Batch of 2 targets.
Target 1
Amino acid sequence: MDVICNICSVLKLIGGVLNKAVSFLVFCVLDLVDFILCFVYKVIDFFIEAEWKPCYCTSAKEAITGSGKILVSEQGESKIVCLTSTKLQLEDISDTLYSRPSLVTEVSKLTVNELKKLKFDGTIIQSCEKIKKGTVRSTFSINSTIVEMLQGKMVGQQLHPIPRWSDCDCKHCNSWTSSSKDTLFVKAEGPKDKAREDVLFIHGFISSSAFWTETLFPNFSSTAKSTYRFLAVDLLGFGRSPKPADSLYTLREHVDMIEKSVLEANKVKSFHVVAHSLGCILALAIAVKHPGSVKSLTLLAPPYYPVPKGEPATQYIMRRIAPRRVWPVMAFGSSIACWYEHISRTICLVICKNHRLWEFLTKLITRNRVRTFLFEGFMCHTHNAAWHTLHNIICGTASKLDRYLDAVRDRLKCDVTIFHGKDDQVIPLECSYNVQRKIPRARVKVVENKDHITIVVGRQKAFARELEEIWKRSSTSN
């Protein structure tokens, strides 16, 4: 027995060393490929759209200001300036957008910095308000004349075509362009005026409201359908919701659009929240902002990684979810999506722009036996939306999640239930237990033989009954 254990230990050690060695070589090649694609896309963008498209691998400032935003720095953190009628609002962006160290990118940045010196003239005299604990943004008053000047500068920026040449131009993906309403797509079911309570469903990364409407909605009991109004939203940049080319898809933008499109538009006052994966972060932000309105929080595979003291939060999270390893396969896929701006754009160009072809081939091969709503959710987004949402929400909120969880524990009295598939290879099971350690009253239910998707898909009837029980229990206790 001891001999077998020793052999297994040696094999595991050898496997780990080989994984690191192969990963180093593979990602060095990918670094070079992404570097080359950077220039390829600049040339193509120039010929098709008549302008150079800034990117993060050369200049963060140029990439951000190129979308009509103003980049500033506050206490060593990156922020962008957003304008209202009389105020400038500072909102966080993740430094992982432009700080992903590799040999090739560091060399390219040094070269570009030597060839081109960026200079920003002008001074803004500001008096910052104290940032309250747990707030999403900070504001400072400023002379209205300066606001008008900055608005002129930002409005004067030429926005990129919608859709861009590398984005899908089908009616499904761009249905929002034909509407005068600047709101998200929301699928609502249930009694509008007679509903006792509302339920907000928030999907995860590169998904859509169909994740809920095609699985849970048909399987709720008649009692639930007559008691609750179900509201499933397509997040900004995904599904049939707007996909603005000049957006940085920050936490504020996502939360504000959900409030505007769901809570305000449907006059929601008391509601339950059901969220999956990345959607759990938005659910926590909304719950903290509306503590008196949330009746229950149901989180599926919440991506919460406690950050060790002294570690840069955003960089730590990026390396946890994207470790630059070729094995396991999910780690390799997440590393491609997170580290490589231009390779991931190429993948979106092949998959998302041609999603109608892939859907047709899937139906043809399977003889229309496979429902394609998951494919639609996976493919109906732009690279700009996926890239910025991944970095600004998953990585960029790393320093905020502890405050959100503390607020849910201390300020909210609602039930908190967490579901996690035991075979989930996207978000490790430990993340759900990490949340429970922050919120002791939270109940964690581990579902055997289920992964990140099959936690819902394939067990929708059972999960619908579980949700109804949670809502009933929460309504009774409240």
Note: The two ends are 56 Å apart (CA to CA).
Target 2
Amino acid sequence: MELERRTQGPGEVVTEYAKAIRKLIKQVDFGRNWTEEQKIYFFIKRLKTDLSYAFWPLLALKNNSTMDMAIEFAQRIEDN
């Protein structure tokens, strides 16, 4: 499945990567049954290593995280 292989490419900003991941999720989640946790997992799974390592502790502090929150966290880390 393409979603499993999709990684954030060199020079690709978080917003571009997030847009691609959302599109791939829509292609496989026909019934729109995926939880936010599942979506976040696939978003974080192939982020650039420095972003993903910095990202997990921040997300763990938040209850009921959403994909939008995950993208916002990643953008903040990327911008710093």
Note: The radius of gyration is 12 Å.
